[in-house]
Predict the structure.
Amino acid sequence: MRLEEIQTALRSEGLDGWLFFDHHRRDPLAYRVLQFTPGSMVSRRWYYFVPANGEPRKLEHKIEAHTLDAIPGKRATYAEWSEMAARLREILGGARKIAMQYSPMCSVPYVSMVDAGTMELVR
């Protein structure tokens, strides 16, 4: 993974970090940017937060707690939705300006991979 390159780009854009998210391998950009392929199916949501500075943080479902093993970072797990939402707040650590695979008004549909519900949850 190109962690230093990603973090340098985040700092140059004035961003607090980049939140990657996937469910059922719907976001090919996440896998391309992070340069990894999970070794198993992805039937549960995972989140991977790369802060502009510091160690990345992972959030995985307890059933698939090894989906992100190939990439660095501190792991947190969840089992139910409310726990997922709480852990997501924790891994974001107060970040305010976060990059995601989102394109306002879906102006660049090839980039717009994050669903509206996940955007609402992050906001």
